[in-house]
Design brief:
Elements (H helix, E strand, L loop, with lengths): L2 H4 E3 L9 H10 L3 H4 L2 H6 L5 E5 L4 E7 L10 E2 L2 H8 L5 H4 L11 E7 L4 E7 L3 E3 L2 E3 L4 E4 L6
Antiparallel strand pairs: 1-7, 2-6, 3-5, 4-9, 6-9, 7-8
């Protein structure tokens, strides 16, 4: 069974995003193929806000220990948000809205560093539903749509 069939983020729909913000998000994608993922990226959270990160800004992603790093991972955390999530009394998986397939006992932390000044988007992660299992979301995610910067 594929994750897309059962994992349902309860965030915003594309038609709820203001046209100028939606166009800005589309323009950040490197190509049309990855731009097709925008509805799912938007659905992962509440209304995104445009944010500029300066060169050398760092963002972080938690991947199950020994797992594959996705080819196109748009979902990242600031250091402060990741620290808050890892030290919370509510589980990391709950706050970050992870699908069941991404749950793990241990995680590896990956880091990306902005090479130039870059536009990213931030949103609050939506709650999710997956075959009866739900998450609360609420973490603050940074959406990196153009990894070439």
């Amino acid at each position: 069974m594929r994750i897309q069939e059962n994992f349902k983020p309860q965030g915003f729909e594309v038609d709820q995003v203001p046209a100028n913000l939606l166009e800005k998000m589309r323009s950040e994608y490197a190509d049309l193929e990855t731009a097709k993922r925008l509805p799912g990226v938007i659905k992962s959270g509440k209304l995104p806000a445009e944010v500029v990160k300066e060169a050398e800004a760092k963002l972080y992603k938690a991947i199950p220990l020994g797992g594959d790093v996705p080819k196109f991972p748009p979902f990242w955390f600031t250091k402060e948000e990741l620290s808050r999530l890892l030290n919370s009394t509510t589980s990391f998986e709950q706050l970050s809205g992870l699908p069941l397939v991404s749950h793990a006992v241990q995680y590896e932390i990956y880091e990306i560093i902005a090479q130039t000044r870059a536009t990213v988007f931030e949103s609050t992660i939506a709650n999710t539903v997956e075959t009866g299992y739900t998450t609360v979301g609420t973490a603050r995610q940074t959406l990196v749509l153009n990894r070439s910067k």
